[in-house]
Records
---
Amino acid sequence: MIENGQATGVSYLHDGTPSTARARAEVVVSGGVYGSPQLLQLSGIGPGELLQDLGIETVHDLPAVGKHLQDHFFVRLAWRCAKPITMNELANSLPRQVMAMARYVLFKSGPLAANGVTAGAFARSDPRLERPDLQFNFTPWSYAARDRTGAVPHKFPGFSLSAVHLRPDARGTVHLKSPDPLAPPAIRFNFLQTPYDLQALTAGMRLARAFTRQSALAPYVTEEIVPGPNINTDAEFAASIRQTASSNLHPVGTCRMGPAGNPGGDTVVDARLRVHGIGRLRVADAAIMPTVPAGNTNAPSIMIGEKAADMMLAAARAGAI
Ligand SMILES: Cc1cc2nc3c(=O)[nH]c(=O)nc-3n(C[C@H](O)[C@H](O)[C@H](O)COP(=O)(O)OP(=O)(O)OC[C@H]3O[C@@H](n4cnc5c(N)ncnc54)[C@H](O)[C@@H]3O)c2cc1C
């Protein structure tokens, strides 16, 4: 709800019943990278042309709302393991699962005490880069495919290494498809937008293979099963990446922070997370990150929430809101 250029509250559905809540001080949008731009656009704050096409009254024409979507993109490699020491054996055996559960309940130890990603590394896809642009996650399990219930583990011992591209060029969008607040928005990532995006993942796959040839790991490798030994040239890697790579679920950027009217750097919120052009309205979630961090996004998102709370309290104490 916006009156005279200021956010005054929210209207919402509770168990299907419409309701409203008025804000004494401020409204904070924390719907995440897809939900926050959706909520702003539904409220008339966003790209004027898009809102007009959908019949939504433009309260404030802010083109960056829903732009600059960025995410880590990753590709997975898997190997058959020479020893029966992986999580696949656990996933395929009820007695082992019962044992693992008992061990965890009694001693808080064993396979269920681990988080599933047991080793990691950061590396550069090109030695000329100043900082790492690849993250590797090692998991002591492997799977043949995903179905609706999740990953289906291989029947034999296996392990996986995923190569994650941390600094992709690709930028996408989150834009409303409909003025219906219950309809999902259109999410477009534009992954692999530049040659570098593809080259980085190709380098990541080659590096992952190199890791498994090291003397510490080599005794555990029987054969590569994903993508398999037939993938060797740049073109073969590219085809494999296009077919199998996916989001690493670290999206950011759709309400990004920066100075208002910054030429070329169109932004949504200022350094105190206040939405440009609208009073008493902030966004506090991963959507405000100007670029994706070269690491996981949960801790930075929590930091943004904590910092937003501090800034709002400071403003309230100073009588600024
Ligand atoms: C499967 C998965 C695994 C992940 N693993 C990791 C990991 O291991 N490490 C890591 O660092 N990061 C991980 N991430 C990323 C991390 O979870 C996110 O970066 C982080 O949660 C972002 O926080 P947020 O507050 O921006 O958004 P969210 O946590 O997505 O919170 C947004 C909330 O808003 C609600 N919402 C949206 N729209 C509306 C609406 N219209 N009305 C009411 N409510 C609404 C949503 O339901 C949600 O609860 C993972 C993400 C996923 C999906």
---
Amino acid sequence: MKFVDQARIRVVSGRGGRGCLSFRREPFVPKGGPDGGDGGKGGDVIIAGDSSMNTLLDCQYQQLYRARHGAHGKGKDMHGRSAPDLIINVPLGTVVIDEETGQVVAEIDTADARVIVAKGGRGGRGNARFATPRNRAPRRFEEGAPGEDRLLRLELKLIADVGLIGMPNSGKSTLISRVSAARPEIADYPFTTKVPALGVVRVDGGIDFVMADIPGLIENAHQGAGMGDRFLRHIERTRILLHLIDPSPYLTPGPLERFFIIMSELSLYSQDLLKKPMIVVITKMDLPENEAPAADLRSALRSRDLKVHQISAATGAGLKGLLGETALLLKGLRNQNG
Ligand SMILES: Nc1nc2c(ncn2[C@@H]2O[C@H](COP(=O)(O)OP(=O)(O)OP(=O)(O)O)[C@@H](O)[C@H]2O)c(=O)[nH]1
Ligand SMILES: [Mg+2]
């Protein structure tokens, strides 16, 4: 069961720059004073909260974060430039764990959270710093301090934004496995999926969301029939519902009736569920026999002011449009509720 999004990353902070060994050259003065500047500080690696992010996908793509080194000091008392900090943005709720010790390093819970996870090395001092009345021409300088190199595990408890609901066998698991890395079992019999699976979906335009495959609902699920009851609770926490319907002409009752069976299950469990934005998804559109019943279903639902999409998870048809509209709807909701 995958309820946690995870990423393993390596963070390496920058080394400090070396202090400089240098003497001022002045005309007519045989030996000028020491003027070697200090090295700059190496960059820190910082993990920062970002309320616009929802998943750890970015950290799964990029696994190495290396901050730059501080510049070396130079003559004429010039200090080396300190390297900029490297900032890794993560969604709120991310827990940062040291992979070697297993200890929690930080929990990123607010948008202004900033935690240094690898401290940049201090710059070394140049020889100008070591001048004393006794030793006016020191040849001493320091190397920059090394950076830190750590393996971290990031964990984020996923809360599904989008719940897939529908009759058993309607194609929920197939859809989620097509659009995310979730791999629930898929088979041609009802109640294949026994535990809710969560998958992270990335849509062009930079909106990520979490989709939950919720095991089959059937009539009387609210009383505990099938496996629906336990999972209705998961639906409660989602923001948008995708209601999948297999339009097959070979199934009884017909598709519109099956739509209402699910709707009445939802309402019996909680009226609030009916207030959630819903997109109806007619599935398995690659099968020619589904075309006519799908057309009837579509017009029946649209006349009830429902958003309807048609897809085939098998061929991929309609998926882009569906995910695009889902992301747009979510964006609107997030802007409203934060
Ligand atoms: N032709 C076709 N078959 C599909 C499509 N999507 C799903 N199926 C088939 O429909 C059957 C049921 O698919 P699942 O994804 O397991 O359905 P489910 O809604 O998760 O079912 P439960 O977990 O039992 O509730 C499987 O045999 C799938 O291969 C599709 O787009 N086209
Ligand atoms: Mg399933």
